[in-house]
Amino acid sequence: MNLYDGLIKDIFKVLANYPMKKLDSKPLAWDINNKNVFLLDKEMAYELGGYPKDSVNIIIQSDNQFIDDGIYFICPNDFDIKLLEKQRHLSFGKIVLLKTKNLDENNIYDFTQKTLIKDTKAYFNDVMTRASSKHYFINYKVSKKAIKDGFDIYKMASSIHSSYLEIDEVVNCAVIILLGDMNIYKELLPLAEKNKEISIALNHIFDGVNMDCKSCDMTDICDEIKELRAIHKKQQKE
Predict the structure, then answer these.
(1) What are the beta bridge partners of residue 142?
(2) Cis peptide bond prior to 52, omega within 30° of 0
(3) Do the Cβ atoms of 145 and 16 come closer than 8 Å?
(4) Sorting pLDDT into bands at 50, 70 and 90, what band is 124?
(5) Are 70 and 22 in contact (CB under 8 A)?
(6) What crossing angle do the helices spanning 184-207 and 226-237 adopt, rounded to 10°?
(7) Of the four listed, 19, 37, 157, 220, which is most buried by Cβ atoms within 10 Å?
(8) What mean pLDDT is predicted for residues 135-160?
(9) Looking at residues 129-144, what average pLDDT do you find?
């Protein structure tokens, strides 16, 4: 199902204005568990995202191939990530683009729930995760212990990549990491908001909430995304 294709094209219009580097090989992954940690400031080595720095978080899928499987970085200057990691607080973002198979109106809802769980319930060892209720802001606090044990952002990206490939419907996965101060976050935030609106509208349809279009506050997004309208009509018939 290509519910998000128009939005993905808009995202790539933004990305086209920034140099992007693909890793030649996949790094070792950093361990993920199902329990978050709490860190005191004195235990923290550095922070990714979180006020007053910028952040953005987009998880999106398509049946079409927009970018090759792999891990990509967008950074200011010369991609010196090791130098960037020496800063105490960094702007941070991640875009996860999933190429999927066998998705239609019968299983798109279940799939979006799987990706939400992957995004909100996977915690990196010795890294404190904080996310907003809207899910398109992200904040990680990396502990000194994690750094001592070998954590780096390459391993984090590898863990994210591997975790989404565990979903049966995912054919391949592109993880795009944004790191450092750039204008790209502000350019992507309206698209992250739109991504969230599409997901909310989809949930409304399958949850049977506000099925009367005249009274539903998601009408504008359904009018814009023809696939949403088609799903809605099918659900009404059923």
Answers:
(1) 46, 127
(2) yes
(3) no
(4) very high
(5) yes
(6) 10
(7) 157
(8) 94
(9) 86
